[in-house]
Amino acid sequence: MIIVTGGAGFIGANFILQWIDKEKSSVLTLDKLTYAGNLNNLAKLELNPRHTFVKGDIGDRHLVAELLKKHSPTAIVNFAAETHVDRSIYNPEQFVKANVNGTCALLDETLKYWKQLPAPEQEQFRFLHISTDEVFGSLAPDARASKEGDPYAPNSPYAASKASADHFVRAYYHTYRMPTITTYASNNFGPYQFPEKLIPLIIVSALQGKPLPLYGDGLQIRNWLLVEEHCQALRLVLAKGLPGESYNIGGRHEVTNRELVTLICEILDALKPDSPYLPHRSLIKYVKDRPGHDRRYALDSSKMLNQFGWNSSPDLKSALQQTVAWYLENLRWVENVISGDYKQWMNVHYSDKESV
To answer: Which candidate in 31, 82, 109, 133 is catalytic?
Structure first.
């Protein structure tokens, strides 16, 4: 069995669904079900005997210790985190509590568990920590893509909290020799992504005829990675990655937010020719940039290619078409998640944004 923390969230749920489909071992999901955690993401596994769900916080040391003792996992995959940059600007302390203190508690209880394992099981065990390209900070337009081992330069409270957690993960390997591995991913997209993130935000807003907000001039550059491909890479790292190592998992294409949103609008135009909001790009609204907005992220994934033969798809448009189609086919899921906290957040965050 493996334990996946934050498994009811976007990437975690996709990872678990793929794991159950492709691997033989069982999964225990630990998730505290905050606003972005959604058990509907794992509805396909409700009656599957190879999946167990436990509601709880990685910062609950007693609970974590009990789960480790009872289930004897061969790996911990740590997705649990607050992840939205905009929310971190409003409430940095929440990100410190979840991403730093929570990860430290999880590491400490895992260390106690790992120390009492027989030597062969200690060697096989892995603590896989999922990080982000944002810890490397903003790149100049002509700078090379970030590589594993590059200096950290986080610029948002979210990125700073993840960077701190990463350092603790590294320290537990170097200090205690606990077999930790860290992966860095570029921006993910795909099914089950909470619609505060750019791609589902644009899809959902366009379907409702609402403004499509773009920060500043919309020329911020990002890598984009289909979540399915990210999960494939994580399974490879769990199987073949070396303790103490880190691995970049990035998309091949660098595109501006403006280019990305325009492409999504074109896809929606084609898939929804009867929409009253054609062309959807007419809904684009440039709003005041957020504080400290990084201009460019990019990851060099050559280590994954050279060591494991993994690379992401070169066809961004096809992956986006697949994603837009999923949201169109799963409008009930969308309706369930855009009520309550989401509506309140959107009202607070975007209602006071000035057009530019």
So the answer is: 133
Identified catalytic residue from 31, 57, 158, 215? 158
Q: Is 134 a catalytic residue?
A: yes
| φ/ψ (deg, to 5) at 62 | -60, -45
Bridge partners of 132?
Answer: 185
Please provide the distance, in angstroms rounded to a whole number, between the alpha carbons at the two ends of the chain. Answer: 52
Q: Report the distance separating Cα 16 and Cα 18, nearest Å.
A: 5
Active site residue 82: no
Q: How far apart (Å, rounded) are the C-alpha atoms in residues 30 and 57?
A: 7
Catalytic residue among 109, 134, 196, 254: 134
Alpha-carbon gap, residue 276 to 215, rounded angstroms: 25
Mean pLDDT by 10 residues, the chain (356 residues): 97 98 98 89 96 98 98 98 85 94 98 98 98 97 97 96 98 98 97 92 96 96 97 98 98 95 98 97 95 94 98 95 97 83 48 51
Phi, psi of 255 (to 5 degrees): -135, 155
215 included as an active-site residue: no
Omega of the bond prior to 279 within 30 degrees of 0, cis? yes
